[in-house]
Amino acid sequence: MENGVQDESKACAPPSPKHADVRWNNEIQEWFCAKCGHTSDHVTKEDALIELEQYECELPDK
What we know:
globular
């Protein structure tokens, strides 16, 4: 864990095609995509990946 962020890349869930680098932020108790910043407050990584699939993995427009 670094800066309150736990790397869960070795969890059981397969990486999402859209969001391959999903991590747990222990400070705010949310999963987030390290590439685009989308978040999910689901408890499990599997559920978070399902939620994140509805979003493209790209930085939001200004």
